[in-house]
Specification:
single chain; eight-stranded parallel beta barrel; 268 residues; two-stranded antiparallel ribbon; 10 strands
Length: 268
């Protein structure tokens, strides 16, 4: 079984287990408890390169990254540094994440939050909405055409934005046809783990005008971000570089080029 198949299998099993503990009807009933949403897509379209700063304790490719880091301290540092949004890993088996991290992150800062996980079932959309997310990750490699389209429609009903992730031309075409408004180009091949930032440059020319574009994985320098912005990328998702930093607030500032950026970009 390949890496991606393992991730999908674990996600599906997790949904079954949690669904037995909290049936969908009960989860749906909790939607009324949500507080005001924080528009995710809007945060990515401000002037300049927007940074989606990620909280993750470990990953299958890197192993333990920052297992002892305090979530509240980390996300507050991201916000103080000028992050536009958060990405929070909730996959427990492979990333040591948990659904409770969404609420903890929401309580600690005012940034919009992306639930990053391997969404395979509509149940997870309700979990995201109830748990404190403003957006969900939908991976084209994981979902067939029907679910890719249907999950976006259901997410919209739940006031969730969607980041539709692609890695190659076929997945990009499927994402566009599904009506995706925010497309994430993952520079990492989920099956092999190989990262190549050239993937963004190869695919962005086929992204329709008006679509918000996010480059994901393998980005660690201000110079890379400047080049990505030059070709039309709106936002970058950065995780490991920030999680390994001794001063994540200053690292966000450096990546964002705060010293020469307009103050408008960093206003809420």
């Amino acid at each position: 079984m390949g890496i991606l198949e393992q991730l999908i299998s674990a996600a599906a099993q997790g949904v079954k287990d949690r669904g037995r503990q909290l049936p969908l009807d009960e989860l749906r009933a909790r939607l009324g408890e949500r507080d005001q949403d924080r528009p995710f897509r809007e945060a990515l379209t401000r002037p300049g390169m927007s940074l989606i700063c990620e909280f993750k304790r470990q990953s299958p490719s890197a192993g333990p990254i920052a297992p002892g880091v305090d979530l509240a301290d980390q996300v507050r540092a991201y916000e103080a540094g000028g992050a536009a949004a958060l990405s929070v890993l909730t996959d427990e088996v492979h990333f040591d994440g948990r659904l409770e991290d969404l609420a903890a992150a929401r309580a600690a800062c005012s940034l919009p939050i992306l639930r990053k996980d391997f969404v395979v079932d509509e149940y997870q959309l309700f979990e995201a909405a109830v748990g404190g997310a403003d957006a969900v990750l939908l991976i084209a490699a994981v979902l067939d055409d029907d679910r890719l389209r249907d999950f976006q429609l259901k997410a919209a009903e739940l006031d969730l934005d969607c980041l539709v992730e692609v890695h190659d031309e076929d997945e990009l075409e499927r994402a566009v046809e599904s009506g995706a408004e925010v497309i994430g180009i993952n520079n990492r091949n989920l099956d092999t783990g190989v990262v190549d930032i050239q993937t963004t440059y190869d695919l962005i020319t086929d992204v329709p005008t008006g679509t918000t574009v996010v480059s994901e994985s393998g980005i660690s320098s201000r110079e890379e971000l400047v080049e990505l912005e030059r070709v039309g990328v709106d936002a970058a998702l950065i995780g490991e570089t920030l999680m390994r930093s001794d001063d994540p607030e200053e690292m966000v500032r450096l990546l964002a080029g705060m010293s020469d950026a307009t103050s408008e970009h960093f206003l809420p």
